[in-house]
Structure formats: structure tokens, C-alpha cells
Amino acid sequence: MRIERGIHTFSLTAPCSYNTIQELCEDHAHYMSKKLSHGLKKVIFLNAYKHRGVEILLTQLLTHRSWIRLIINPSSLRIGRYEPLALFQAEHADLKLVHKQLKEIIKELDLPMKLKDFKLNRVDFTRNLYCQSLKEVRVRLDIFRKSEKLPYYKEKKFGNHSGERDEAVDQPLYADEANRHAWTTGVKDSEFAVYDKGYELKKRHGLTVLAPVLRMELRVSGQRVRKLASKGRWEDQLRQLSKDQDKVMDKFLHRLHQDFPQVVHKKEAFKRIEESCFQQRTKDKMRELVKKMSSCGSFTAARQKMGLNKKSFIQLLGKFEKIKISPITLSKKLNRDCLEF
User: Fold this and answer.
1) Predicted confidence band at 169 (pLDDT cuts at 50, 70, 90)?
2) Are 306 and 292 in contact (CB under 8 A)?
3) Cβ atoms within 10 A of the Cβ of 227, count?
4) What is the DSSP letter of 58?
5) CA–CA separation, 107 and 115 (whole Å)
6) What value does the mean pLDDT take over residues 245-259?
7) Whose CA is closest to 242, among 3, 74, 9, 6?
8) Which residues contact 238 (CB under 8 A, 6 or more apart)?
9) Whole-model pTM above 0.85?
10) Where would a tag sit more exposed on the chain, N or C end, judged by fewer CB atoms within 10 A?
11) C-alpha span between 15 and 18 (Å, rounded)
12) pLDDT score, position 163
């Protein structure tokens, strides 16, 4: 299976005066706004540069400092048109080009601050998994739905992530229907989403892609960004995060127990367990976990059904790592013998 890696989106923020935002709204006719908190907060979305890969979000507050946020799709900004599947590597030449074009936009907006005044606020680590069929996309999505339930993380409706785009504009979009094509979990400064990219592009943008693509996005923001990247200019932070993206994503997939090399049919799983060199008692536990994963909604539920503490459960999963298969098994609906990860 072909996998592409990179950064899909990042955002920059800078403090901005209430009056500056008012002037921006007067200068740009094409914008949408939404009042929140009994009129004390107003969120304005400027769409003049959206076709170039930059969305501008203005947060106007009466009682606190106002903010301007640039939500950037660097692949689209780099070439000047929307690229739905392209992912960005923050290498010197491409990052320099993105920097130059952002400076031009700030100049066109006549903002009182410079690009160096902006801080990196969010980064989306992204992987495109190119599948053989839409059926495989759905199967892989169902596998992710069985992930470990992480402490403090909550499942969220797809599209309501990070409070950026959706804060600016109400997007009824596809609501419940979309969540059949996606799985999202998150906390305040970290969210993980897996979704059918082809479905999202068709419903949200009216675009059709020929290849079935499952997209994974790990979106980190705020304090989480500052923990992952050393202090410095946002360009240097973005370059570092781009370099570390595999380590960050792999660590998170490991927490979800979604980093096993293969997923096989139940019959094949039992065969590999039996052929392993483990003691019979361990083999029985492994077979029990395979059965529980077929009927339970998550690794967490299966562990509770088996009455195992976290340490014992992790040790049991280590046995599956040695034989290179996941305790989750494929349904009979998929004709392929296994799925590689």
C-alpha cells in the first residue's frame, strides 16, 4: 500500500486590535461572521485568499485582546491553487516560497504587524493511505474505530475540529452522514481523525478523486505545539516538526494500538497463534482476545471483558507484536488475506 506523509495544514496567530479587525471588514466585502457569547465575541472569516490556500480568521473581543489567525494549506499556497491530496514537507526551498507568499498577503491586507510577529499555533500531521477499493477504506476505518479509548480523549463529530473553520461559519455539511465515513477523537490541544478523503472532497468541495484514500490527521495545537517544537521562529519550528512527523504520528498510533504490521482473518490469526512458540496458557489468552475484539467496540472494552489490568494487557499485546498481527481481524466481506500497515 502506498502511503504519503506530510503536513496538510498549519496555522499562525498574532494579537490584533479591535479597530484593525473593524477596518479589515470594511475593506473586504467578502466575509462571513458569527457573534458568540452574547455579542461580546465576534468571529469573522475572510475568504478572499481561500483559493490560494490561506483562510483568515479574525476573533474580535470587547473584553479581551483580539486575534488574527492565518490557516494555511502550504501545498496549495506554494503553487497558487487548491491541491486536495498534496502534503507539504517543510524543506528550505518550499518553506522559503511559502514565507514569501504569506508576506505578500500580509502586505496586501495592510496589517500593522509583520510575518515574524506571528506564532505557530497548530500543525496537522497527515498521512494519505491509498487503498485498492472503497471497501478497503471502510474496513480500515472500522479497524480504527476499535482503538484504545485514551484517558480524557472524547470521540467527536467529524468537521467540528479545533474550533477554527467551524467557529467562523456554521457548517451543517453532512453531520451524521459524515460520521459514518470518519472517526475522530481528541482533547483540547490534540485531535486525531481518520476519514474517507474521497467522500469528504465530494461533499465539501464538489471534487472527485479516482483513487480511494483513507486520510489520517493528527492535529496538535497550542501548548502541545510548544512541547513538540523548540523555541524560535515559526519557520524553524515548522521545519523541526516536519522532520519529526513520523516519530510523533507513530507514537500516537502506538497509544491507540494501531501500529501492528498486519491485520488478518480470524482463521489465519488462530493459525499463527498456534504455530507460535508461546506457552499454551498464553495462546489461549491470545485466542480469547481475538474473539473479544470481534464482538467488542474497542481495545478498552475487550480488556475490561477479559478482566485484565493495563500492564497485563500491554504484555499480551506484546505477544501479538512478536507474531506481527493485530488482535483485530478482518471480516469475511473482504476477500484479501491481510491488510498491511
Assistant:
1) very low
2) yes
3) 9
4) E
5) 10
6) 97
7) 6
8) 7, 10, 90, 95, 120, 123, 229
9) yes
10) N
11) 10
12) 47
- Whole-angstrom distance, CA of residue 136 vs CA of residue 224: 33
User: Whole-angstrom Cα distance, residue 254 to residue 117?
Assistant: 36
- What grid cell was written down for 295? 464482538
Rounded Cα gap, residues 312 and 318, in angstroms? 10
Crossing angle of helices 234-243 and 245-256, in 10° steps, is 60
CB 180 within 8 A of CB 83: no
Which contacts qualify for 242-251: CB closer than 8 Å, 24 or more apart? Answer: 242/6, 242/7, 242/88, 242/89, 242/90, 242/91, 243/90, 245/5, 245/6, 245/7, 245/125, 246/5, 248/125, 248/218, 248/220, 249/5, 249/125, 249/127, 249/216, 249/218
> Residue 228 to residues 16, 118, 201, 223: CA-CA distances in angstroms?
26, 18, 30, 9
Question: 507460535: which residue's cell?
Answer: 276
Distance, in Å, from the CA atom of 16 to the CA atom of 67, rounded to the nearest integer, reads 5
Q: Which pLDDT belongs to residue 298?
A: 97
**161 pLDDT exceeds 70?**
no
Q: How far is CA 335 from the centre of its chain?
A: 29
Residues 187, 154: Cα–Cα separation, whole Å: 7
Give which of 86, 117, 128 is closest to 234, Cα–Cα. 117
**Other CB atoms closer than 10 Å to residue 1's CB: what's the count?**
12
Per-residue pLDDT, averaged over 103-117, amounts to 92
Query: Over the chain, what is the mean pLDDT?
Result: 89
* H-helix segments, 146-196: 165-168, 175-178
What is the amino acid identity at position 70?
L
Nearest to 183 by CA among 227, 220, 228, 214: 214
- The CB-side HSE value for 329 (13 A sphere, CA atoms) comes to 22
Asked whether the predicted pLDDT for residue 43 surpasses 50, the reply is: yes
